[in-house]
Each structure stands twice: as structure tokens, then as C-alpha cells.
Amino acid sequence: MKKSISMEKIGLATGLITSLVLIAYFLAMKALGLAQVVELRFFNILIIAAGVIYGIYNLKHKLHEQEFYLKGLAQGMIITVVTVVTFALFVTIYLRYFDVALMEEIGKRVPYTGSLDSMVIFVAIFMEGMASGAIITFSAMQYLKSQGTVKTGYE
């Protein structure tokens, strides 16, 4: 009996692991007293990139299909959505209920004229993460599609 490979399961698992790494990074920055340095968000992109590239590569080598481009794009976006929504929810809940002072400190450092509340934080993290994830997914697929074909075993 051949085990079916689910793009959604791989995407969900990879996205959750990637979001756990982002959460661990956030908590490490908090423990080191660097949570208010918004420029360190750059490393979030690198963490998302590692998760997306790993997930696409993993799926490519499990599916063994010649026409992989659209599935790879979908896989990257599934991973991005799961990662970004989970991380944005965590940060929003954390700042709203556990560290209001950090939210106020970030509000002073970020060029935003309105009041900084939970919804603004969630939307900002979501938009930034989704934009990064989309760019990473399209870039990764340009590389992975030209990386040669995977042997299917049926040739």
C-alpha cells in the first residue's frame, strides 16, 4: 500500500515548526532585552525563508513529479500562512495581555501616527510576513524549478 503524500500536511507541519522557531527567537530577544529593537525583525525573514525553502524542497522530493511549479508555489504559501498567522496571534496575545509596556515601547519607536493596539500589531505582522513569504516562495521556486528533475523511478 502506497502512502499518499499530502501537501497540506507537510505545509501545516512545516509552518507550525517555523512559527515555533519564530516564537523562540522572539522570546530569546525578550530575555536578552532586545525585544524593543524592531530592526531585528529582519531575522524573522531568514527564519521564514528557511521554513519555506525546506518545505518546498521536502515536497518536491516526496512527490517526484515533473510539473511541480504550481504545487511548489502553493506549498510555500501554505507554509507562510500557517507560520505568519500563528506567530502574529502569539505576538498579539503576548503584547496585549502579558507585556503592555513592550507594546508602548514599540509604539514610540515605530513611525505610526495612530494608536497602537492589538489589531494594528496583528495586521502589521501579518502583512509583513505574507509579503516576505510570497517573495521568498517565488524566489525559491525560481531556483528549485531549475535544479534539475527528480527521478521518478518510472523512467
User: Radius of gyration, rounded?
Assistant: 18 Å
Termini separation: 21 Å
Beta-strand content: under 5%
State the share of residues found in helices, binned by percent: over 70%
Q: Which runs of at least 5 residues are low in confidence (pLDDT < 50)?
A: 150-155
Number of domains in the coordinates?
1
Counting DSSP E segments of at least 2 residues, the number of strands comes to: 0
- Approximate shape: elongated
Please tell me the overall pLDDT.
84
The largest sheet is:
none
Q: Which class best fits the helix and strand makeup? A: mainly alpha
Order of helices and strands: HHHHH
Q: Treating each run of at least 4 consecutive H or I residues as one helix, how many helices?
A: 5
Key features of this structure:
about 160 residues; about 0% strand; single chain; mainly alpha; elongated; disordered C terminus
Question: Can you walk me through this structure?
Answer:
With 155 residues, the protein is mainly alpha-helical. The protein has one domain. The chain has five helices and no strands. It has helices spanning 7-31, 42-63, 69-98, 100-109, 118-145. Helix 1 runs antiparallel to helix 2 (42-63). The longest helix has 30 residues, at 69-98. The radius of gyration is 18 Å and the shape is elongated. The two termini are 21 Å apart. Mean pLDDT is 84; it is low at 150-155.
List the helices and strands and how they pair.
Elements (H helix, E strand, L loop, with lengths): L6 H25 L10 H22 L5 H30 L1 H10 L8 H28 L10
Helix pairs in contact: 1-2, 1-3, 2-3, 2-5, 3-4, 3-5
